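Question: I have long wanted to understand how a fold can be written as C-alpha cells. Here is the record:
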Amino acid sequence: MAQAPKLNVVKENPPDAEKDEGKSLADLLAEEMDEVVVPATASLPTDAGPKRTQRTKPIPDLSGTAPVWALIGSGDSGKTTIARTLGGKQLESAPESLDRTILLASDPGARLLVEFFAQVMQPPGRNIAQVVEWQRKVFGALPSARGKGKFLGGYFDLGADAIAFGELIASGPTLPDQLRQGAVSLIGAYVLTPAVDDVAQLAEHQRLGVKWPASLLILNLGRADSPASFETIRRTPAYQRALEEGAVELWWPRLAPQDLALWIESRRFLFHEARDGIVPEGNKNPPIPGVYRPVVRRYLEAVNEELAPLEGKGFLPWLA
C-alpha cells in the first residue's frame, strides 16, 4: 500500500486585510460564523439511556490473525464514518502499519473513503456482478498476503445494503471459515440505525449459517435521536440470537451537531486532523477553528472508550 500522506500543521487562515477593510467587527464576526457551526457534545449512552447488554460469553480472541472489519449496513448508516475513524486512529497511532492495512470501498455507487486516504482499493467498475467477482478475488488473496507478512488487517466499506457482498456470502457462506484457516479473521461488523430493516442482513446471514470468528453489533448514535431509539431492533429475534452467540455490542458515539460532522467531511479531514488543526499535504482547506476542536476530541475519546474492551483481543490491525 502506498505511503500514508505526510501531515503538516498550519496556522489558522489569516484575515485578508484589503478584503476586510472598512468592515465592522460585527460584520467580520458574522462572516466567520457563516463558515462554522455551533457544536454541542460527543457522547455515549448515559444512565438515562438503555443499559448495556450484559455479556454471557467472553469476547472472542482473534490474536495472531489479521482482522478485517466487514462493515455491513444500509445506506447512510455510518459505515464510511466508522472506517474513516478507525483508519485515522491507525494513521495517528502507528502510521507505518497503514502500509500493510487494506482500506476497501466497494459500493457500486459512492466511494467516499477514497477521498481520505492515500490508497484505497476499489472495484474497476460498478456493475454488481463485476463487484462480486472482484470481492471474491480480494478475499481469496488475503491469506497469501498474510502468509508473506504483508497484511495486518483491513476495513472494508461494503457499501449501501452490501448487495455485492450479500451475493458473495450467499454463494459461499463458509468464506469466514476459509479465511480463518489462512490466519485472517473476517469480522461481521453490522452498522445499525434504529430502522428495524437494518437487521435484515444480519438475519439473512444467520439463515445462511454464516459463522464469523467475531461479530459486532454497532449501534450508531449519530443516526438516532437517543439510545432509547434502538430498543425495538435490540428486541428482534436476529439481534437477540446474535447476542446469544457471542456478538459484541458497541455504541458508536455521536459527533453533534450533524452540521459539524458534515463540515469536517466536506473538507476531507480525518477526525484527529480536525481535532489538532492539522492539514494534510495537498488539502487547501483551512483547519477547523480551535473553539470546535474539543468537541472532536471528546468524540475520539468516546470512541477509544468504546473500543477499549477489544484491545488485546486482536480486533484492531495496529494492535493485532
